[in-house]
Structures are given as structure tokens and as C-alpha cells.
Specification:
Layout lengths: L6 H65 L6 H4 L29 E4 L6 E6 L7 E8 L43 E9 L9 E10 L6 E3 L3 E3 L4 E3 L5 E3 L3 E2 L2 E2 L19 E5 L7 E2 L4 E4 L30 E7 L6 E7 L23 E3 L8 E3 L21 E13 L22 E9 L14 E5 L2 E5 L6 H5 L6 E5 L3 E4 L2 E3 L8 E5 L3 E3 L5 E3 L6 E4 L3 E3 L4 E2 L2 E4 L14 E3 L4 E3 L13 E9 L1
Parallel strand pairs: 6-9, 6-32, 7-10, 7-33, 8-11, 8-34, 9-12, 11-13, 12-14, 15-21, 20-22, 21-23, 22-24, 23-26, 24-27, 25-28, 26-29, 27-30, 28-31, 29-32, 30-33, 31-34
Antiparallel strand pairs: 1-2, 2-3, 3-4, 4-5, 5-35, 15-16, 16-17, 18-19, 19-20
């Protein structure tokens, strides 16, 4: 029997449906493969992008640590821009005298490469021998040479190698790219993955960061600032930061002026008080500003007489900055005041060690100057050229008496628990540590030939014990400024007491301080004043500060309030009475917070 004609079309439709289904299945399989491939590509890119970011961040943190280590020994970041200090700036503005180490951190696991897009040199540091990508890093100066006022920057003028002066060079209309003035530099870090090339299609993550010290303030206290009576803080940079309260007083403006003319405040200065304590009650002098309590503030900077960054910079030629060490030798009979000076010929770099090194443990680095052996008196003249030689000596006979030791040859101990946790950079537990100190006070003596105009010999003075100023004045600022090379910075391991009239100082230490007390700082008497001749300068104390009467500190004031080893001042970190004044006319040289913090930050991906 023949099949019916109606069954043929059914079989054809079934075959067509099967073919169509097969086609759909093939398409679905193709789509699935495509999607899987796209997901693999996306996953690979996301991993590469994440790895590039991780590498950039690791390079940034490593570079920040590198810059922080430099600032433990250097006053600025010249060596970050010109590590070997061998670039000849005579080739500016083209900088044709640049060397291969310029702008690159001294990492031993990297190599210099040139970025084709910019023509700039970066240091390439591979990760896992390049199997996990690489980061590229470069350090550039910020536009600090636009600050042409030399009194703003205590660091300006260091590392003058050949033609490389700090700041814009005469006749050259551009900044000096291999010299830093303010401790701020730009760090550029590029992370790439996969591969180790800046070119091609690898994922790329770029971080560009301004690194340097934090902001500062005219008065920094590790505790409460108490201002009673007409006490006040003023000047264009008279801000106050305290980890305790700010109680009473006045901040800036003509409304704060009181007492003698040196206590007056200028018009138009706006100041801010920031207190981590519960109280910020200082009034404002009519120029605006604010006093805010219960805010987060940075801890005060460390104030230690043994901090190696307080020492002068190195000297390998002539006309060195004198660096003195004054102490009482109780082993002599009778006790003998002794003066040493740093021997740059034997030890060119006073900052080479972890702390300031005294004659007891660095004997070859110090030359004994008190050859006349005049018991408790020290005779020396600022006009003596032998003091500035690389091997210092006294060459002038009949030098005036400058210091007289007043005390007994013994050791004074603070109370139990006095700074017990603060011994890391101090020489020892007995005689030189925080708890124990030489029980001697050195009086700065007036010159008998000019009793009202005694001039301390230039240089950095380190005094083992207490220091007292009384019954005289130093030369006025106009006389000091007539000698462009003159400057003095004084460190005492103990208290500093100022009972004289006007003391005029110009800082010589690149740190910018003029007085630093390892214990308390006191200004008392009718008109005890510290003038800094219009320069950026700081007065610092490891413990507490007290100012009374018409006293004046014309500088940044820092009271770490780290301990209470001395009983001279007790209580608050800073106590100001009467019309005591802190006036800050220039940018404060001592910043808050870590020296290599991130100030500005930008990032991009490719």
C-alpha cells in the first residue's frame, strides 16, 4: 500500500525544526565561549589594574620612608634631588650638567629608564624580577624658589656645591630644580602590570603626591596654655596649637596690645587657637580668627638637646660654623670649666651619628680650647679667626670672659620615673640621661669693656647643665645684621633662665632655633626679652615654659611638656603672666607632625 500524500510534509517540517534547533545550539555555544573569553579578559585586566595600584602605593610608601630618613640627618631634601651633590648648576636653565642620579631615590634594586612620553628619567623597580610588574618613581622639587625672601627659610644656602646656590640663580629666570628650600618635593610613582614597560597596553596606575612637613603654629604646647592678665600671642603667624586647653589671654590684633612697646600687636593679623582640651577661651584682638576647643591636633614635635639635626652642617673647607661643647669637669682639682670645639678636620660631619656626640665618647672629634685653665671662667672672643678653622683653636690673647660656672661638681637627679621611657637617643642613664644631669649653671657674662653689649661668639653652643642670662643686654639687631655671617644657636641639657634685659639672636643652626632647653625655660625680671632680628626662628623647651612681667619671645615657642624632671616650672605646659608676649613675625621653622607626610594627592589609571 502506498503512503498517503499528507505524511510527507510532516516529515519535512520535522527535519527543518531539527536543523533550526541545531543552529540555535551552535549559536548559544558560540555566545557562551565569547562571554567566557570576555570574562577572562575582564578578570585579567582587573587583576592587572589592582596589581598596578598596589605597586604604585608600595613605591610611594617606600619613597616616603626614604625621604623621612634623609630628613633625620639633613635640613632639607637637596639630596633627594641631587643625591651625590655633583650637579653643576652653571648649565641652568637647560640643566645640561645634570647627572644620572638626579631626581631618583637611592634604591639599589632599580635602574634608570627614560619615559618616551615625557623624556624624564624614572627609576624602574621590578616586582618578583618583573613577573609581577614594576613601579617607576621620580622626585621633583616644588616651586619653592618663588619664595625669594631669604629670612623665611633657615635652610636656604646649604649645600652650595660649585655653582649650585639655593634659590633662583642670578640672571636665570627659572627655579633651581636640584636644590630644595622648604622640605617639600613632588613624588611621582607609576605602577604597571603585566610587564615592566611604560609603553604598550599594560594596566597603569599613577600617583602624584606632594610630600613634606605639616603645617606649623606660632605657639605649640604639649598640654595647656595658661595666659593670665594681659598675656597674649600675636604676629602674622601667631596661631596656637595645644594638646590641652587654651585658657585666657588674647590672640592677635591691636586689641591684644599692652605694656611696653615690644609687647604691641599689629593691625589686621588673624590668628587661630586649636585646643584638644575642653576649653579655648582666649579672646581675639579685633582682627577675627577663632579659638576652638575639643578638636584633634598633632602632638608637639620632639625637643631633645641630643637631637643630631640640631648640630651644624658638615664642613670640608674653611670658615666652618663653630660648634662648642661647654661642661664642668668635676674630676679636676679644683673643678674646671672646659670648652671644646668641633674638629671638622677629623670629623667633617657633626650629624653623622644617631645623636650629638660629646667629648666623652667622641674624643677625636673635639678640640680642647680652654688651654689657659682659668678655673670656672671661659674666655673667648667672637673675633678670633681660629674658632672658624677646620681645626679650631684660640689665637687671640686677652679674650674677654664669656662664661662662668656656678655650681658644685655633682649630678642632679630628677624624681623617680622622670622621663624613664625617653632614653633612646640620650648617652646614658647617669650624668647625661634625662633623669640625671650636671648640677651646674653657666652664667653668660658681660664683656667688661662693653658691659651692656656682650656678644656671644657665633656658632652652635651645647652646654652640659643649666644656662642663665642676667644683668646685661646683647647688641641690638641692627649691630648683629651688619655682619651677614653672624648667628648663634644655644642648647642646654638643663634649664634656661633669662633674667636680663634684651637678648638679640639670629639663628645659625639650620633647624632654625635660637634657644633650646633640655628641661624648663623661664623668662623673668622686669623686661626680659628675646629678639630674633626679623628671622624665622624658634625657642624650644623639652619640659615647661614660664613667662612673667613684660617678657617677650619674638619667635615660635615650642613646649613639648614631655616630663617633669625639673622643679623650676610646674603645672601647665606654658604659663604666661602680666603682659608676657609671644610674637611670631615670620614663618615658624618647626612643623607639626612627621617630616615626610602627604600634603597633596592625585591619582589616575590607564
Amino acid at each position: 500500500m502506498l503512503p498517503s500524500s499528507s505524511s510527507r510534509p510532516a516529515r519535512g517540517y520535522i527535519l527543518l525544526a531539527v536543523m533550526l534547533l541545531l543552529a540555535i545550539l551552535v549559536l548559544l555555544v558560540a555566545v557562551a565561549h565569547q562571554r567566557a573569553g570576555d570574562e577572562d579578559v575582564t578578570a585579567t585586566f582587573e587583576r592587572s589594574d589592582a596589581q598596578a595600584r598596589v605597586l604604585a602605593e608600595a613605591g610611594l610608601e617606600r619613597t616616603r620612608a626614604y625621604l623621612g630618613a634623609l630628613l633625620e640627618r639633613e635640613v632639607d631634601l637637596d639630596r633627594a634631588l641631587d643625591p651625590n651633590l655633583d650637579t653643576d648648576c652653571a648649565y641652568l636653565p637647560a640643566l645640561g650638567g645634570g647627572t644620572s642620579d638626579d631626581f631618583l631615590p637611592a634604591f639599589t634594586d632599580g635602574e634608570p629608564v627614560v619615559a618616551a612620553s615625557s623624556g624624564k628619567v624614572f627609576l624602574r623597580v621590578p616586582a618578583d624580577n618583573g613577573a609581577e610588574g614594576a613601579y617607576f618613581v621620580r622626585i621633583d622639587d616644588n616651586d619653592d624658589d618663588a619664595q625669594d625672601d631669604p629670612v623665611l627659610w633657615a635652610a636656604s644656602g646649604n649645600n652650595r656645591v660649585g655653582n649650585c646656590l639655593e634659590g633662583a640663580l642670578p640672571g636665570v629666570a627659572r627655579a633651581n630644580p636640584v636644590r630644595d628650600r622648604d622640605g617639600l618635593v613632588w613624588v611621582t610613582v607609576i605602577g604597571v602590570h603585566p610587564g615592566t614597560s611604560l609603553e604598550g597596553n599594560a594596566a597603569r596606575h599613577t600617583l602624584r603626591v606632594l610630600v613634606g612637613p605639616g603645617d606649623s603654629a606660632g605657639l605649640i604646647a604639649g598640654g595647656t596654655v595658661l595666659m593670665q592678665g594681659g598675656a597674649h600671642v600675636c604676629g602674622p603667624f601667631g596661631d596656637v596649637v595645644a594638646t590641652g586647653s587654651i585658657e585666657g589671654g588674647c590672640l592677635c590684633g591691636a586689641g591684644c596690645s599692652s605694656g611696653a612697646p615690644w609687647n604691641s600687636c599689629g593691625l589686621g593679623n588673624t590668628c587661630v587657637g586649636q585646643s584638644a582640651g575642653s576649653q579655648c577661651s582666649a579672646s581675639l584682638g579685633g582682627a577675627g580668627g577663632e579659638c576652638a576647643a575639643n578638636v584633634t591636633v598633632e602632638a608637639p614635635p620632639r625637643v631633645s638637646p641630643w637631637d643630631v639635626t640640631l648640630a651644624p652642617l658638615g664642613c670640608v673647607g674653611t670658615d666652618c660654623t663653630p660648634f662648642y661643647y661647654l661642661r664642668l669637669d668635676e674630676t679636676a682639682a679644683p673643678a674646671q670649666a672646659r670648652l671644646y670645639a668641633w674638629n671638622y678636620s677629623a670629623c667633617p660631619f657633626p650629624r653623622a651619628g644617631p645623636r650629638i656626640c660629646g667629648p666623652q665618647d667622641c674624643a677625636t672629634c673635639w678640640a680642647l680650647l680652654d688651654a689657659t685653665r682659668q678655673a670656672l671662667d671661659i674666655h673667648v672672643s667672637d673675633g678670633d679667626p681660629g674658632l672658624r678653622a677646620s681645626v679650631p683653636s684660640i689665637t687671640l690673647a686677652g679674650s674677654p670672659r664669656i662664661w662662668r660656672a656656678d655650681g658644685v661638681p655633682s649630678v642632679s637627679s630628677g624624681p623617680l620615673g622622670c622621663d624613664v621611657g625617653d632614653t633612646g637617643i640620650y648617652p646614658g642613664q647617669s650624668g647625661f640621661g634625662r633623669r640625671d644631669m650636671r648640677d651646674v649653671t653657666f652664667d653668660f657674662m658681660a664683656n667688661p669693656a662693653a658691659p651692656q653689649r656682650a656678644r656671644m661668639p657665633r656658632g652652635v653652643w651645647f652646654v652640659e647643665g643649666n644656662v642663665r642670662f642676667r644683668n646685661f643686654e646683647t647688641p641690638v639687631c641692627a649691630e648683629l645684621l651688619a655682619d651677614a655671617s653672624y648667628g648663634v644657636s644655644l642648647i642646654a641639657t638643663g634649664n634656661i633662665v633669662h633674667e636680663a634685659e634684651a637678648l638679640s639672636f639670629r639663628p645659625v643652626s639650620p633647624k632654625g632655633f635660637v634657644l633650646l632647653a633640655g628641661r624648663d625655660l623661664v623668662l623673668r625680671g622686669s623686661n626680659s626679652r628675646i629678639h630674633t632680628c626679623g628671622f624665622s626662628a624658634a625657642v624650644m623647651a623639652h619640659e615647661q615654659v614660664e613667662m612673667v612681667g613684660n617678657s617677650l619671645v619674638e619667635a615660635q615657642l615650642v613646649a613639648e611638656n614631655a616630663s617633669r624632671c625639673s622643679s623650676l616650672v610646674s603645672g601647665d605646659a606654658v604659663r604666661m603672666y602680666g603682659s608676657a608676649t609671644v610674637s611670631v613675625p615670620r614663618i615658624p621653622p618647626v612643623p607639626l607632625g612627621p617630616p615626610a607626610r602627604v600634603r597633596l594627592f592625585s591619582e589616575s589609571t590607564h
